[in-house]
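Workshop exercise sheet. Pairs work together: one partner reads the sequence aloud, the other fills in the structure field after running the prediction. Swap roles for the next sheet.
Pair: D.N. / O.F.
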Amino acid sequence: MVFENYANFYDLLYRDKDYQEECKFVKRVFEIYSEKEIRTILDLGCGTGSHALLLSDMDYIVTGVDLSEKMLHLANSKAAEQNRQIHFLQGDIRYLDLPQRFDAVVAMFTVLGYQTTNQDLENAIRAVRKHLNPRGLFIFDVWFGPAVLNEKPAKRAKTVKEGDVKIVRCAYPILDITKHTVEVNYTVSEFRGDHLVAEVRESHLVRFFFYQELLLFLNRNGFEVLKVCPFMDLNGQVDDHCWTISVISRGI
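Structure field:
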């Protein structure tokens, strides 16, 4: 299962990710596109809960769902430390069946891209629709196909330090243009001083998308697309340099 092996490194590796601005963007989308006040949010692929905690700080009632037990353990620990009442659940977003409906569903940080087959994608979108209140919003971000094919995935390395701990993550991507996927093979190494103390490997298969296929899948599963824009940029124009795009849709 992805994210199980290096869940403990996750927050350190992504501490430079601007979760605060991303949640402000979500709130702005609510203000512009929602026909009613948003109170309840379902956060799909919530990971360690960084978006959920910030959205809770904005007075939304948040339920988080993730497949990884280890990521959810970290999310619950962070919520307890911050005295936040957030319901975190383990579940597969393709087959989710909760007794509650929500005003909005968010799937941040390319969560939908992990649905790499058409059937998995359709199942996930249907599950989202089932859990939305009438005319509710579905907001997500994905990799944009024209930019992926234009710029091509490349080998990358990232190093982060905290005290005497150094984490080095190397990513080795394999592009499949016929399946619209990138297999990202990660090696994450933990050093204390100059000594390697742990090393984990994971492979993440991520799908990239094109505008017309997003429109097709969303439309035929009960959504209208309200906006497609560069990630967190409502006024920007999507082009073949926008690796990540934000998609704003509404149930019909």
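Discussion prompt: The domain at 7-144+209-251 is CATH 3.40.50.150 (Rossmann fold). What would you look at next?
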